[in-house]
């Protein structure tokens, strides 16, 4: 029963990926980045508040922790009765006037998918391996690792709060900037094992990854024709989830290549290398927008 219910829940969570496309379609082009950023901040804040609530419910009885999902009922009511669907983009009709033209995904979307897959698949070890790393270095424990991850989340929330302004000034240069932030943060954690330094590094890396992630989502819509925006953003979301799913294999690949004292440290070094490659590539690659951004 537990596995089946989790599978159903997973389907529902997967469908929620459409929210980014809805935000982009329902808002003016000049404001969509800002609204994407605000949605990211809301996600981070609610996630931070929900964690202790779930813990408190679990203390009462382990299966009570699943009660948190009842909030989805409120979301469903809000969407069904108050959400106005964006105007549908008129599809091109064939010469016979019968068949609708198939939605085509721009080739640049696959480039963005590769970028976000590498971003997520490599940096995820930063989250899963922090407790082990702090313990091995003798500078912290699981509780301290939790604090570091909270700082990571705060860094991402602060960065995305200004996502609209960042994209307005330099959307095509945002990915190299965010990659540089992750390199700085990850390198500081690996080479300066000091709890104060790591705290600052978590803020920097969190800002870099979270802003980079939503920049990928925004770019996927910007390079796509209007009728393929939903498909493009969902493809990018799928690539992100693939990175999460495969991150443990990526850690082992890095450890096989770099052979540092622990697989976590090898993963940290591998993350630095991959993000340097992302920084160089995104600095040289020129994205072609479907229409000029406002």
Would you kindly provide a written description of the structure presented here, covering whatever features stand out?
Helix 3 (32-60) packs antiparallel against helix 7 (142-161), helix 5 (107-128) crosses helix 11 (229-258) and helix 5 (107-128) packs antiparallel against helix 12 (263-284). Mean pLDDT is 86; it is low at 89-97. The protein is mainly α and 294 residues long. 75% of the residues lie in helices and 0% in strands. The protein is globular and about 55 Å long. The chain contains twelve helices and no strands.
Q: How many whole angstroms does the radius of gyration measure?
A: 20 Å
Q: Given the C-alpha coordinates, what overall shape results?
A: globular
Amount of beta strand: under 5%
Spell the H/E element sequence. HHHHHHHHHHHH
Global structural class:
mainly alpha
**Can you count the beta strands?**
0
Helix content: over 70%
Report the mean per-residue pLDDT as an integer. 86
As residue ranges, the low-confidence spans are: 89-97
Count up the helices.
12
Question: Termini separation (Å)?
Answer: 50 Å
The largest sheet is: none
Features of the shown structure:
12 helices; globular; mainly alpha; 294 residues
Question: What are the SSEs and their pairings?
Answer:
Layout: H1 2-15, H2 18-26, H3 32-60, H4 71-82, H5 107-128, H6 130-137, H7 142-161, H8 163-170, H9 174-191, H10 195-222, H11 229-258, H12 263-284
Helix pairs in contact: 2-3, 2-11, 3-7, 3-8, 3-10, 5-10, 5-11, 5-12, 6-7, 7-10, 9-10, 9-12, 10-11, 11-12
């Amino acid at each position: 029963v537990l596995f089946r219910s989790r599978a159903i829940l997973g389907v529902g969570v997967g469908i929620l990926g459409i929210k980014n496309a809805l935000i982009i379609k329902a808002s003016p082009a000049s404001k969509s980045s800002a609204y994407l950023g605000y949605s990211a901040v809301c996600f981070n804040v609610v996630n931070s508040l929900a964690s202790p609530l779930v813990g408190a419910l679990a203390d009462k009885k382990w299966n009570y922790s699943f009660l948190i999902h009842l909030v989805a009922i409120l979301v469903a009511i809000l969407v069904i009765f108050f959400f106005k669907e964006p105007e549908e983009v008129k599809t091109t009709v064939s010469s016979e006037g019968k068949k609708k033209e198939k939605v085509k995904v721009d080739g640049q979307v696959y480039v963005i998918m590769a970028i976000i897959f590498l971003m997520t698949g490599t940096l995820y070890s930063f989250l899963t391996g922090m407790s082990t790393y702090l313990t091995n270095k003798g500078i912290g424990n699981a509780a301290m690792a939790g604090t570091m991850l909270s700082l990571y989340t705060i860094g991402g929330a602060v960065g995305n709060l200004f996502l609209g302004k960042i994209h307005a000034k330099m959307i095509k240069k945002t990915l190299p900037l965010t990659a540089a932030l992750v390199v700085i943060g990850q390198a500081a954690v690996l080479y300066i094992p000091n709890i104060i330094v790591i705290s600052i590094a978590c803020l920097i890396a969190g800002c870099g990854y979270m802003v980079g992630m939503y920049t990928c989502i925004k770019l996927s819509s910007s390079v796509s024709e209007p009728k393929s925006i939903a498909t493009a953003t969902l493809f990018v979301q799928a690539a992100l989830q693939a990175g999460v799913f495969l991150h443990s294999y990526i850690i082992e690949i890095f450890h096989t290549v770099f052979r540092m004292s622990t697989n976590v440290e090898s993963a940290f070094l591998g993350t630095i290398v991959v993000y340097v490659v992302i920084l160089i590539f995104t600095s040289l690659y020129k994205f072609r927008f479907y229409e000029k951004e406002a």
